[in-house]
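An instance follows:
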Amino acid sequence: MAKNGSETDPAAARRAPAGAAVLREDKTAAIRAAVFEELAAVGFARMSIEGIARRAGVGKTAVYRRWRSKLHLVLDVVSAVAVAGMPTPDTGSLHGDVRMLLEVAARALRHPMAAQIIPDLLAEAARSPELADALKGALHDSQEGVATAMLARAAERGEIPAGADGRLALDLLTGPLYWRLLVVRDELPPGYLDELSAAVVSALARP
């Protein structure tokens, strides 16, 4: 590393245009991981760029090179995880697709870090319209496309009427899990995901 704390090494500096900073992927990954750890440890309101940088083992400058504030950093990280986290199921049946999505969602919500971070961010969103809009896009709108595509395939197979509401499907899928795992904080009883899958499919199949 250069003596002035730059992220560029001599070889990279020769390849990069004059004045350009080379953002090392290992540092970016460390910062992203530190965001979740810091959110779980202290919450959004008390989280700071200094704390994130310390946890990631980098200087504050390395964080500010990538994001201009902790809000933008959190929004970027949460959005990236939300987009990557929900698969597009194609099991050949609506019940199989619903069951797969429920399994993935339940596993994510059971994670200790998610159980701490999600309620905290939603509470903070009540005070921050920008955060509220971003969370809506990350946690709902980005997943609605997955649900809509799933329903379109089910309609093509004749399992449900055409034009089923993807937003309603997503509410039916995730609402009960969020309530039970993050609000009530209760475990899912044996067979719960199978029963919920059947209930969701039945509701969507109604004309």
About this structure: The chain has two domains: 10-66, 75-205. Residues 129-156 form the longest helix (28 residues).
